[in-house]
Amino acid sequence: MSPSAKPVSIKDVARAAGVSHSTVSRALADSPLVAAGTKQRIQLIAREMGYTPSAIARGLVTRRTATIGLVVTTIADPFIAEVVRGIEETALDSDYSVILCDSDADPERELACVRTLREKRVDAIIVTSSRVGSLYVPLLEQLGVPIVLINNQHAGRYVYSVRNDDRQGGWLAGEYLASLGHRRVAYVGGPPDAHSSVERLEGCRAALREHGLDIPGALALPGDGRTGGGQAGVDLLLQRPPHPTAVFCYNDMTAIGALRAAKAAGLRVPGDLSLVGYDDIAFAVFVDPPLTTIAQAKRALGQRAMDLALAILDGQEETGDIVLTPHLVERASCAPPAPGAGMPTPSR
Amino acid sequence: MSPSAKPVSIKDVARAAGVSHSTVSRALADSPLVAAGTKQRIQLIAREMGYTPSAIARGLVTRRTATIGLVVTTIADPFIAEVVRGIEETALDSDYSVILCDSDADPERELACVRTLREKRVDAIIVTSSRVGSLYVPLLEQLGVPIVLINNQHAGRYVYSVRNDDRQGGWLAGEYLASLGHRRVAYVGGPPDAHSSVERLEGCRAALREHGLDIPGALALPGDGRTGGGQAGVDLLLQRPPHPTAVFCYNDMTAIGALRAAKAAGLRVPGDLSLVGYDDIAFAVFVDPPLTTIAQAKRALGQRAMDLALAILDGQEETGDIVLTPHLVERASCAPPAPGAGMPTPSR
DNA sequence: AATCCCCCTGCACACGTGTGCAGCCATCCA
DNA sequence: TGGATGGCTGCACACGTGTGCAGGGGGATT
Description:
Two copies of one chain form a homodimer.
Chain A: H1 10-17, H2 21-28, H3 36-48, H4 55-62, E1 67-72, H5 78-93, E2 97-102, H6 107-119, E3 124-128, H7 133-143, E4 147-150, E5 159-164, H8 166-180, E6 185-188, H9 195-209, E7 220-221, H10 227-239, E8 246-249, H11 252-264, E9 274-279, E10 292-295, H12 298-313, E11 321-324, E12 327-329
Parallel strand pairs in A: 1-2, 1-3, 3-4, 4-5, 5-11, 6-7, 6-8, 8-9, 9-10
Antiparallel strand pairs in A: 10-12
Chain A binds a DNA duplex through helix 2 and helix 4.
């Protein structure tokens, strides 16, 4: 069959089998309304003719496309890629397809994506780490489709969310650093408008306070969630003493940037500076030293999101806000502070 | 509108405008057959009613879904993620959607993907780095859809390909190492059945031969395209002297694994061992030392694949095999061999 | 033997959109 | 003023599938 030829339809099968197309439809759906013999014969003929049902036509009548839309800021982010994998996995297991839309963090493109997804009549939409998450809520009225937000809590009808407990993650980092003996820790955050960034900071602060410590405003820097932000953050910290002995980073990319800057400045990690990341991306193991980090269950995040979407479509009333607990992965980028560290002018 | 409400159709608009649905259809398509005034009025009403055309119904009659299927081994691979980004980008610009299928390198899942894509009536399929590429050719007869293979050359009707010139890439690596003065270089490859791996090896050999050198069989090791393969490869090389002074790796992941093994064995890179990767993934910059590597135009690979698919669907006869040229990116993982290196027993 | 009932099959319509063709009305030309 | 022409609109069908309803036929029961 050449690419331009039209595929065999249910009617073609019906003609070959000498029955009506209704009977074929029922036979292929394994309906009890069709006699066992007829059913078997039709199924055989359909197979022989290479029949494949048209999800298009089916979708038109059933109003279900068995397809969900997935909007991501960028698939090139290893954290997001892992989440997507979880979504893909459970989608395939449930015979669902996912239409991927890479908005490239551009709100205009993101809107174009949503418009397309609406035309394609996807059954639901999953959005990961969008900064314009709240933008969807007004759009929802026109959308008429359930939306699951990943790591972007947002209350609202028809808007659900699955997220990592950022506060708890921050707390783990703070508690760990404090227990190592650090008394002067800094924070290099994510994009200024990211809710998750302030949550992680607050969590960290809460833990430090239990030890009588805090992160002063001068040591809480904004970033961008990428290596550049980490690099700039540490550069800035090194310009104004006294230096921190540890830096908690918004995510692993930021930590990797911080690591570069520290090395470039002649500091040893973790000897002179301890670093804690967030996410536990695959590459955290491969930098030198391997990154101690707060691990999110990335795969699970995707799976739960997809499961939630399926449950909603199945008509089950589900809790609208699932939160997953992160945990600390101890590797080699942290150590107790060197005696006398954190003083106005380090050796250099 | 609640999620379960049905969207407004072209007929609803027609009723509101007091015309037939045909006229609405034409007006929205900006057909010259409709009077300018009527057209404007209808478009306004449609907008006010929040009408969105149903790609489902349209697809049924036009036999075009404006959707392509994308089959990947795993989206978690940063190289593939970058390619996907290129595809996504040009797809969105052409108002096409892409259905992503992560086969997890499992042939069975891969087949399930293709079956689903067929049901969804995608206009074309793009496959990246599948090892079972040749498996698609027999399937094509039932498929009736053009297929574009990325980095998986395979002649055949209705099967097209966009690929990186692996031989040339290998040649670049070999030439570079030879010009640095290395006389004993090893190769740690990809999966044994990967055609690209033998191409890169052969290209490298060709360059070395121009300098009177070669890669003996004992120094050409198989791998798996992941860090584990690189690690195992270098471990093996270090077990049997004389050691190579440089290792050309199938890809960056392999090189990163090789780097770990070398460090673990107390070797310094590039002092004691030079390393060349392949792909130039984003993380190649962040390992220590930053990786010298053969860069593939990943984004372009995706773009060209999508462009090719669009051209084919547009009825243009296109050349079926596009090959892109890689280039060397010099960073810090290579240096001239140390004097006396490559001898039976290194210092340790 | 007649009636009833059950099992199976087909008819017809619906889903939302695109399009060839016919038909209507107004305008223009003779 | 009558006919022709052209611009605009609606009718009807098609795309492929699902499903309520009617109807037919055969077996069982009375």
